[in-house]
Specification:
Distance between the termini: 53 Å
Number of domains: 1
Strand content: 35-45%
Number of strands: 5
Largest sheet: 5 strands, mixed, barrel
Keywords: Signal
Organism: Roseibium alexandrii (strain DSM 17067 / NCIMB 14079 / DFL-11)
CATH superfamily: Copper binding periplasmic protein CusF
Helix content: 10-25%
Radius of gyration: 17 Å
Pfam families: CusF_Ec
Protein name: Cu(I)/Ag(I) efflux system protein CusF
Shape: globular
Signal peptide: 1-23
Oligomer: single chain
Length: 121
């Protein structure tokens, strides 16, 4: 009986984590043009960086209001929200309301996500 429970748990974990494991390859973001070399991030932040497609609504002083696609890696549904920009955020172009972009989000020491790069699509 214990073997059955162990196998059932292993099967459940394998199935439930598969979408997260392969999510990065399905989001369609081509971030090969992003130069991450001068971003002051530690290895954990780079490892945990998340990319998503979004539309810029506005960019203000240290904040961007965007409408982004679902981000399954961190459990976020599609939504419109204000996201802070990191102090060293890379703006790879001039952006205006309505522009389609790829965002690179990193989780800060405070546990909150912020935009570390914006690249045009």
């Amino acid at each position: 009986m214990n073997l059955i429970k162990t196998l059932a748990l292993a099967g459940f974990l394998a199935v439930s984590t598969a979408p997260v494991t392969f999510a990065d390859s399905k989001h369609g973001a081509n971030h090969s043009g992003m130069d991450h070399s001068d971003m002051p991030m530690n290895a954990d932040q780079m490892e945990g960086a998340v990319h998503t497609q979004a539309v810029v609504n506005s960019i203000g002083d240290g904040t961007a209001n965007v409408t982004h696609d679902p981000i399954p890696e961190i459990g976020w549904p599609a939504m419109t929200m204000d996201l802070p920009l990191t102090e060293s955020a890379q703006m790879m172009g001039d952006f205006a309301a309505g522009d389609s972009v790829t965002l690179m989000l990193v989780k800060g020491d405070d546990g909150l996500y912020a935009i570390s790069a914006i690249m045009p699509n």
